[in-house]
Amino acid sequence: EDPVLKSFNLEAAAEYMSKCSNVVVMAGAGISTSAGIPDFRSPGTGLYSQLEKYNLPFPEAVFHLDFFRTNPKPFFLLAKELYPQKFTPTPTHYFIRLLEEKKKLLRVFTQNIDSLERVAGISTDKIVEAHGTFFTSHCLDCREEYDLEFIKEIIFKDEIPHCKKCDGIVKPDIVFFGEKLPARFNDCVHSDFSKADFLIIIGTSLKVAPFNRLLTFVDKDCPRLLINMEPAGNSNQDMGSGALLYGKKANRRDVFHQSTCDEGVSELAKSLGWEDEFNKLLQS
Ligand code: OAD
User: Which residues are involved in binding Zn(2+) (predicted)?
Assistant: First the structure.
């Protein structure tokens, strides 16, 4: 085994990171499971395996527009489960906040729609909610905008929100398959990835495009640290030189730290000498 490679572990990555000031974080559902929010694809516990009762043609249909137009009920039942503010942020969310306080965070790109990054106190200009949020909703037909309160009340009555103007179905601004990602996503991808000096990929299976392609946009020497329970990505997918991320082939600048997100960031905080501050933040 390559000795350089072997020694580029979490600790070595932390040492490298201590000198960085443009850290980009790519996050997924795995950073919120310890808050009690299920992820999507974990067998048994993931949302997609709990959708059987809704008789969907395939689990992801819940996020497909065509299906939603004919049968919005499964989505709104799911929305109720995932509704923001019902949950508190995890240690991983607070670690990202610590990165900001340490002036190292360039941006966190999250696929999550639980808005726990905001709740954890990370500045909104540091957050890119790549798959949208519940904060606003729009009528599918006339595009009339609705706020969180409107949707909340109806979702919690197990009813379907309809537009007051045209009676169309009102859909939260969560990005469905086939929909464009928010303009802010593209703007920030453009400005941030060439500037990034360290990439943390955490709690995501890297199965969904275009998000999963972002890791190929950093400089070829930029270290990429994956903290996840399992290898991520697709072996048949072009991940640049990110082969290590799906456990196939190693390269020098990538680290796969296989653990829970919370354990991973707590070890990272320790290696960075931030243990006390991290614990203080968790207790506050
Ligand atoms: P997935 O459910 O696909 O992947 C979550 C990953 O996190 C898996 O690899 C898990 O093994 C891992 N994981 C779960 N809990 C963990 C923990 N406590 N510590 C460490 N790892 C853990 O979720 P995403 O990758 O976020 O789209 O899914 C991407 C998109 O697919 C979502 O944004 C969603 C879905 O369709 C929309 O909502 C629009």
Answer: 139, 142, 163, 166
Separation of alpha carbons 38 and 46, rounded Å: 5
Nearest CA to ligand 1 atom 9: 205
188 is in an annotated binding site: no
Q: Please state the pTM of the whole predicted model.
A: 0.93
Q: Model confidence over 160-208: pLDDT tens digits?
A: 999 999 999 999 999 999 899 999 999 999 999 999 999 999 999 998 9
What atom in ligand 1 is closest to the CA of residue 131?
39
111 lines ligand 1 (CB under 6 A): yes
Question: Residues near 68 by Cβ (< 8 Å), separated by ≥ 6?
Answer: 62, 75, 169, 171, 176
Residue 63 near ligand 1, beta carbon < 6 Å = yes
DSSP letter string, 139-158: ETTT--EEEHHHHHHHHHTT
Task: Supply 270's token pair.
Answer: 């320790």
Say what the ipTM of the complex is: 0.99
